[in-house]
Design brief:
Largest sheet: 5 strands, parallel
Shape: globular
CATH class: Alpha Beta
Radius of gyration: 13 Å
Low-confidence stretches: none
Oligomer: single chain
CATH topology: Rossmann fold
Helix content: 40-55%
Distance between the termini: 16 Å
Length: 124
Amino acid sequence: MGYSILIVDDSATTRAMVKRTIRMAGLPVLEIQDASNGKAALEMLQSAPVNLILADLNMPEMDGFEMIRRLRASDTLKRIPIVVLSASPSAEAFARLEHVNGFLAKPFTPEAVRDVITKALEAA
């Protein structure tokens, strides 16, 4: 059995790096999907729910804050653990993130990715 993970970030380079890091971390992952913004992620999740979401906060079209708000308001998606990826979160950003299961500061190591994902999945 493996997990399905969705990476939501507007940078294709960051999405590729996170995918590679997850694979290097040795996690039991079946599938890794990605989306370039919150709107695309929500559309994907309607037909293909996942076990965990890794999401950036600053994205065009729909940012991570709005995506998280909509996920938590959805009866079918609200239980999916969310780990926020961010290079420089402000105190205000942290105050708006009470409904997330973890935080990963960019840049990150494979060990940090493994630890935060494992913790979020175990708590789910």
